[in-house]
Amino acid sequence: MEIDTSDFQRKLDKIERASDKGVKRALYAMANSLLADSREQVPLDKSTLMKSGFVDQDHPNETLVVYNIKYASYQHEGVRRDGTYKIKAWQGGRKGKYLEDPLHNKHAKYMKIYKEELAGGIL
Prior knowledge:
Helix 1 (6-39) runs antiparallel to helix 5. The protein has 5 helices and 2 strands. It has a two-stranded antiparallel ribbon. The two termini are 34 Å apart. 54% of the residues lie in helices and 7% in strands.
């Protein structure tokens, strides 16, 4: 006796494609929320750094929140890579660790966004 599983396989493939799209969409939504939260903390002088932020999904299996300006890392870490020029204070309540802190402090929020987007894309 032979069983035809081709219909089952097609449905399984469809679920896999929907899952992949759902994960990508969920990560994009989560990253955009992190970007918005980080913009509330990013050091602000002329808003050049803040305006350079974006979500990047150009790499397979990665979603990145990027501030694309040469001094972004310096402002985030509060010190140059060589350990010199430590930032003692930022103006207007802004701060370093503008990506790291929201990610840790609002982890539950981002996971909720991820789960909701993922469930919405698969169901």
